[in-house]
Amino acid sequence: MSSPKDYILEISPAVDVVDDHNTLEFSIRHRNETVFDRYRRPVGVVAAVVMMTMILEVVGWPQAKRLQFGSWTNVVTLMVSALVWVASVLRQEPRDSVLVMKDIGIQLESIKPWRYQSSVKSFVPVGRIIDLVLHEGFHEYGQVIYYLVILTKPDPKQVSHDNIIKVVFPEFLPRKDVLLKVRSLSRDLLFGQRMCFRRVPGQGLRPVQNH
């Protein structure tokens, strides 16, 4: 069954052709926020106020003591408020972004939904980029998807050459039409009318004109 993949592609600056730009940033995020994400800031403030009131009641603040709660109610309220507040602080908007810099390279970044999850960031210098290629593969329960990769030359400083393919938008894996637009604009900015490479059966990588 196909995933809805209801995502938004943001391009900065907003362009359909590269023209004289030196950088382009592509970001993918969810179109619709969850209820918690939409209201997490005001909910976090309310949770913090309730939590502080409970703490002040414990330390003996007179105004807080006017709130007559049972001991178990206090404990449960304090724990729930603390959990909600922590969740509101640690939550962030997940997104995948690609920063393409003319004559410099491509920077990839994936921001996770929670701040304690490490964001993944990597940079590929233009000298190592062979091409941006659209692949077809299987995902999860046999779903056929398209995904965009940066095909790179092996890094001479690394002993292992396993990581020569960098997946673009690895957390979201957006639809083909989005990937085609990102690929087209990125290649125009990186290569222009210069030569890039294609893998020809039996001949390896061969230079071809970018178009």
UniProtKB/TrEMBL annotation:
Q: Record's family?
A: Belongs to the PIGH family.
Q: What is the lineage of its organism?
A: Eukaryota, Fungi, Dikarya, Ascomycota, Saccharomycotina
Which Gene Ontology cellular component annotation is one that this UniProt entry carries? glycosylphosphatidylinositol-N-acetylglucosaminyltransferase (GPI-GnT) complex
Q: In which pathway does it act?
A: Glycolipid biosynthesis; glycosylphosphatidylinositol-anchor biosynthesis
Domain of life of the source: Eukaryota
**Which Gene Ontology BP annotations are present?**
GPI anchor biosynthetic process
Is Repeat included in the keywords of this UniProt record? Answer: no
Descriptive protein name: Phosphatidylinositol N-acetylglucosaminyltransferase subunit H conserved domain-containing protein
Classification via InterPro entries: PIG-H (IPR044215), PIGH-H_dom (IPR019328)
**Entry keyword set:** Membrane, Transmembrane, Transmembrane helix
User: Which Pfam family would be a valid example here?
Assistant: PIG-H
Q: Where are the transmembrane segments?
A: 43-63, 69-90
- In this chain the Phosphatidylinositol N-acetylglucosaminyltransferase subunit H conserved domain maps to 97-170
